[in-house]
Design brief:
The complex is a heterotrimer of chains A (251), B (132) and C (599). Chain B is mainly α. In chain B, 69% of the residues lie in helices and 3% in strands. Chain C is of the alpha/beta class and 599 residues long. Chain C has three domains: 2-50 and 135-231 and 355-422, FAD/NAD(P)-binding domain; 232-353, Succinate dehydrogenase/fumarate reductase flavoprotein, catalytic domain (Flavocytochrome C3, Chain A, domain 1, Alpha-Beta Complex), CATH 3.90.700; 428-542, Up-down Bundle (Methane Monooxygenase Hydroxylase, Chain G, domain 1). Chain C has helices at 15-27, 63-73, 80-99, 132-144, 212-219, 247-250, 286-298, 320-326, 328-338, 393-415, 421-440, 448-462, 469-486, 500-524, 543-546, 580-598, and strands at residues 2-5, 8-11, 33-37, 53-54, 114-115, 125-126, 150-154, 156-164, 167-175, 180-185, 188-191, 224-225, 230-236, 254-256, 303-305, 308-314, 347-356, 359-361, 373-375, 380-381, 466-467, 533-534, 548-555, 558-566. In chain C, strands 7-3-2-11-19 form a five-stranded parallel beta sheet, covered by helices on one side. In chain C, strands 20-18-12-23-24 form a five-stranded mixed beta sheet. In chain C, strands 13, 14, 15, 16 and 17 form a five-stranded antiparallel beta sheet that branches. The chains are: A alpha+beta (251), B mainly alpha (132), C alpha/beta (599). At the A-C interface, helix 1, helix 2 and helix 3 of A face helix 3, helix 4 and helix 9 of C.
């Protein structure tokens, strides 16, 4: 770092529930180099300027999904967003949109996790198989049908991108639909019918108006917009076939 | 009794927050124009049922300067409506494979747009062909 | 204080903790499980593991080969009976993962595929592209949802173990969202909190890998075994230390010095084949590769980059198709962080701390010397890695021993009762005061980050790839000083809701103590073995005096007490660790010796 250090002004939306009624902006001057990420900038603030700044992070390599936040008004992972791309100027950092702010850059994700658990996101095998019989067979082509949707790191950027979720937190959202589809499309799985319940509800896929921004912000190219919109056709079909061949499948 | 006090931020004016949202709103608004044009055509059908004079009156009204401007606006919104609809169409379809390779979204969009252009051209030349 | 009554408490919800929880639930669905994690489970560092999980799979492979590779790789410091159990149960656990939906990469005919990996004689590493840990963690987390007896305590930070009547009977946890404490009573406790790589400056680890469980067990008298053995992974990103998986080399990548020369052939790993040859060149064991880098750097043959000396990981000859199919995450990391496209440009890499071979002393059934306390995963020293771990053995370790820990803990929990709930509550109150003491005191002058940075730099200087008496001693002294200065911490944040600075301060306490265990163990081991290499007169392996484990015991304020423990040797007597051509020659000679016996 032989050349003069550059300074970035990072403006953070702070919120300390024990101290203030509403979030308030606070600006920090952070030195940075060519490969300093926003996360590293926040760490600098916490380490040397203001230890009270709270934010989530862990892996630093965009695989754990902890560090999602609004950077310059867009949902991004702070570990792989770089200060150099916002220089010169002031960079605004806020907690992930559409979630209640608990503290500074930390939001409540309990409901998100609960919803995830509710879609039966585990393999419901078509056929039983003992361990002695070895692995189920699955060709690379069969695997390709669902692999893209299995790449979701639960970072919730898609929820921060979705105004329908912002307006109605009961909406299932595209992220969970991607995970639901990951299992439905897995050749080993036979649980599609069991998973239709959450899909068919009004706050299921029908809350989606195909804005598509979720897929734009997804850091792993999961394309959740595709997952959720695919299920509108399935949901409609399911609605009609219910009368043809009634099942208790969607309960 | 915890000190937690989660803060819920307002969604007012959410669609002004970035260009992507604004393009989405524009797309949605074009539906209003489609509805408007449907009304115009409906009026034409009603006039047709009321006899030749009424129908000709409707055709004349369509040729007024105000109407021409209105139709140009409609055309512009229809083009955007069509383009944005075919843009979003791939995500409504299941994941498709042809010859072992994944069908790309732009292929679906392109196919739709080409089909739309051909359909418009067909209608145009048909109508032209029926002119005396 | 809130009290939750569980049968089994598990601290840490990564691969090992989740596998253990499922095992408890399957052993007895009536047992109440408290799964305590300071982060949501999908953030656990298992998620970052890339390369794969090893198990004997091919018909030309054998349990003996996997056993031999592991014991040789561990430089004969492995508990051989435990390794035998490990290799024998690896395959069934990977099949179990597959039955739970894990998206293993496949061969054309639909079977699980295997790839070559460092130090392994035959391809046996199962993989899910280059995100194996991610897929295993998500599979385990999503599968765990099926079991109603698992109650998760997400974002609860464990600040102490409860030990009463000579038995571990619970844990004290802080609910991070509120700053309130919960006493979780449990008749058996499993620690699965991961490694301690964050003690070092440059490391592949996430911020949460701070040796929490190790420190907690250590403070309660459980020894930490073989702590001096820290694995340097040879191919990491300069600056951040992020991991470029060994699979890059398994798929055929080369390591080149500044002259574009495959330098590993100069270090007993040659001769260089154009395509990967098992246990040779770039597929040698990690300690050898990291050591080779050190030597190249000394010889001035490394490349000077903005973050120091690097070598080049050349993947260009693999071609775009293979790179995008087998190593997509690597391509993403190189492009987004370094602006390098591996299809066209070699990736600059250097060794960084990656894995903690040592940990909480555990027998072959994951039990610690403290009754009721079990440990599993990277935080544990169950005895399979010895002085150097082979890549892809640790993901398998999570599930093989995760299951063992769950079954053992379940059975133990059923056989005992909480002896004295009132005493536990008193202990909890005392522990709570201690934890609050870190944040409530005033007048401190030391900044957290300053102490942490000094610790990390000192550990890198004293416990690097090659170690010297004087440097290790300097680190010992510095850590003693840092522990003193730690008592004088200045914390900015005195709130209760999500006070992460407070928790970082507690973690620093864990790191400093685990760091001491590491460096004092290193100082005491007067030989070179595996990843503990010295250049101060102790360059050779000394099987006479040091074919033994190190056990570090907590003594409170003063330096840890180091004792030695015998290694369980069954059928593999210590030999030479030979790789490359020398290794093939040695293997051939051994086969010749065995022929008359089998003939």
């Amino acid at each position: 770092m032989a050349d003069a250090e550059k300074i970035m002004e990072i403006e953070v939306l702070r919120y300390r529930p024990e101290q203030e009624q509403e979030p308030v902006l606070q600006t920090y001057k952070v030195p940075f180099t060519d490969d300093t990420s926003v996360l590293q900038g926040l760490q600098y603030i916490k380490d040397y300027l203001d230890g009270t700044l709270s934010f989530r992070w862990s892996c630093r390599m965009a695989i754990c999904g902890s560090c999602g936040m609004m950077i310059d008004g867009k949902p991004k992972l702070s570990c792989k967003t770089f200060l150099r791309d916002y220089y010169p100027g002031k960079l605004r950092v806020e907690a992930l949109a559409h979630f209640p702010v608990e503290r500074d850059l930390m939001v409540t994700i309990k409901d998100y996790v609960k919803r995830l658990e509710g879609i039966k996101p585990y393999l419901i095998p078509k056929q039983a198989r003992t361990l002695d019989e070895g692995e189920y067979l699955q060709t690379p082509q069969q695997r390709d049908r669902y692999m893209q949707f299995s790449a979701c790191i639960n970072c919730m950027l898609c929820y921060a991108a979705c105004p329908q979720y912002g307006v109605n937190p009961k909406f299932i959202g595209s992220g969970h639909m991607a995970l639901l589809h990951r299992y439905n499309a897995d050749s080993r799985d036979g649980g599609s019918d069991e998973r239709m319940g959450p899909v068919n509800e009004e706050d299921g896929v029908w809350g989606c108006t195909a804005i598509g921004y979720c897929s734009v912000v997804c850091p792993k190219q999961v394309d959740p917009a595709h997952a959720i919109n695919m299920y509108k056709a399935k949901s409609s079909l399911n609605y009609f076939t219910r009368f043809v061949a009634p099942k208790d499948a969607d309960k | 009794m915890s000190s937690q006090r989660p803060y819920v931020r307002s969604m007012d004016g959410w669609w002004t927050r970035n260009a992507y949202y604004m393009r989405y709103m524009a797309r949605e608004v074009t539906a209003v124009f489609v509805a408007a044009y449907a009304v115009v055509l409906l009026v034409g059908v009603v006039r047709l049922s009321q006899g030749e004079a009424a129908f000709n009156g409707w055709l004349q009204a369509l040729k007024s300067p105000l109407s021409l401007v209105f139709h140009l606006v409609l055309l512009a919104t229809f083009v955007y409506h069509t383009w944005s609809w075919f843009n979003i169409m791939p995500i409504t379809m299941p994941v498709m494979f042809v010859g072992g390779k994944r069908v790309q979204p732009r292929t679906i969009t392109a196919t739709g747009l080409v089909a739309a252009v051909i359909a418009c051209a067909a209608v145009f030349f048909f109508v032209r062909g029926t002119q005396p | 204080m809130e009290v939750y009554k569980a049968d089994v408490a598990i601290v840490g919800a990564g691969g090992a903790g989740l596998r253990a929880a499922i095992a408890v639930a399957e052993t007895d669905p009536t047992l109440k499980i408290a799964l305590v994690s300071k982060v949501y489970p999908m953030r656990s560092h298992t998620v970052a593991a890339e390369g794969g999980a090893a198990a004997v799979t091919r018909s030309d492979d054998s349990l003996d080969y996997h056993f031999d590779d592991t014991v040789h790789g561990g430089d004969w410091l492995c508990e051989q009976d435990v390794v035998e159990y490990f290799v024998a149960h690896a395959h069934e656990e990977l099949v179990q993962m597959e039955h739970w939906g894990c998206p293993w990469s496949r061969t054309q005919d639909g079977h699980a595929n295997v790839r070559a990996f460092g130090g392994m004689k035959i391809e046996r590493t199962w993989f899910a592209a280059d995100k194996t840990g991610f897929h295993m963690l998500h599979t385990l987390f999503q599968t765990s949802i099926k079991y109603p007896s698992i109650k998760r305590f997400d974002e609860y930070f464990c600040s102490d173990l409860m030990v009463e009547d000579g038995r571990c009977q619970g844990v004290l946890a802080i609910q991070i969202a509120t700053g309130e404490f919960t006493l979780i009573q449990a008749k058996a406790v499993i620690i699965a909190t991961g490694g301690a790589g964050r003690v070092f400056r440059e490391n592949t680890n996430g911020g949460i890998v701070t040796g929490d469980g190790m420190a907690l067990a250590y403070r309660h008298g459980v020894p930490l075994r073989d702590m001096e053995f820290m694995q340097y992974h040879p191919t990491c990103m300069p600056g951040t230390g992020l991991l470029f998986t060994e699979a890059c080399r398994g798929e055929g990548g080369f390591l080149l010095n500044k002259d574009g020369y495959r330098y590993l052939q100069d270090y007993g790993l040659g001769p260089p084949d154009p395509s990967p040859r098992n246990k040779a060149m770039e597929l040698g064991p990690r300690d050898r590769l990291s050591q080779a880098f050190w030597h190249e750097k000394k010889r001035g043959r490394t490349i000077e980059g903005p973050h120091g000396a690097v070598v080049n990981l050349d993947l260009r000859h693999l071609g775009a198709a293979k790179l995008h199919e087998r190593l997509p995450l690597i391509c993403e990391l190189a492009e987004e962080f370094l602006g390098v496209d591996p299809v066209h440009t070699p990736i600059p890499v250097l060794p960084a701390v990656h894995y903690t071979m040592g940990g909480i002393l555990a027998d072959g059934k994951t039990a610690s010397p403290l009754l009721g306390l079990y440990s599993v995963g990277e935080c544990s020293s169950v005895g399979i890695h010895g002085a150097n771990r082979l890549g892809s053995n640790s993901l398998t370790e999570l599930i093989v021993f995760g299951k063992v820990a769950g079954v053992e803990a379940a059975n133990f929990a059923k056989s005992v009762a909480i002896s004295n709930p009132a005493a536990l509550e008193k202990q909890a109150e005392a522990a709570r005061s201690r934890a609050l003491g870190v944040v409530t005191k005033s007048g401190g002058t030391e900044r957290l980050a300053v102490l942490r940075t000094e610790m990390a730099q000192s550990m890198e200087d004293g416990c690097g790839i090659y170690r010297l008496q004087a440097d290790m001693q300097a680190t010992c002294d510095q850590l003693r000083e840092l522990r003193e200065r730690y008592k004088n911490l200045k914390i900015d944040d005195h709130s209760k809701v999500y006070n992460t600075e407070w928790l970082l301060a507690i973690e620093l306490g864990y790191l400093l103590e685990v760091g001491e265990a590491i460096v004092y163990s290193a100082l005491n081991r007067k030989e070179s073995r595996g990843s503990h290499q010295r250049l101060d007169g102790f360059e050779q392996r000394d099987d006479v005096n040091f074919l033994k484990h190190s056990l570090a015991y907590y003594t409170g304020e003063s330096a840890p007490r180091i004792e030695l423990q015998d290694v369980k040797i069954t059928r593999s007597k210590p030999g030479t660790r030979a790789y490359g051509a020398a290794g093939e020659k040695a293997a051939a000679e051994e086969r010749e010796r065995e022929e008359p016996r089998n003939g």
